[in-house]
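Methods — Computational structure assignment.
A single polypeptide chain was analysed. Its primary sequence is given first, followed by the predicted tertiary structure written as structure tokens.
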Amino acid sequence: MSNSVTETVVGAAVLSVAVGFLIYASQFLGGSASADAITAEASFRSANGISVGTDVRMAGVKVGSVTDVELDPVTFRAITEFSIDRSLDIPDDSVVIVASEGLLGGNFVEILPGGSAFNIEDGGEFLDTQGSVSLIELLLKFVGSSGE
């Protein structure tokens, strides 16, 4: 009798840990939109290194995350959707860039605030964007221009 009670207790503990892990994983991966966040999108020529879950930062502080990245079949640009903390009043003329954490670091989306009196609204689009820059392309340009 005590063996089945022990098995039941251990089974319940394993099940509760699994449920807790699933809840944590869904929040971490952006499985559900937060009620205290707005969504916005931006179109990039190159979104290399950006995927779902990538940080969105302002002044180095995480203010949101990327929720979707897909290719526009008409313009062949990467349409990136992200969630941003609702408490922030971000001007609608802000610049959104794909930035790198360093030479070997990963990429993230950075918002550089503009000066507009109007703020981005839920579902809005940032029009001024700059895609990722390839280090190899920069080195090839530098090497190619040094011989001229």
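Note: The two ends are 88 Å apart (CA to CA).
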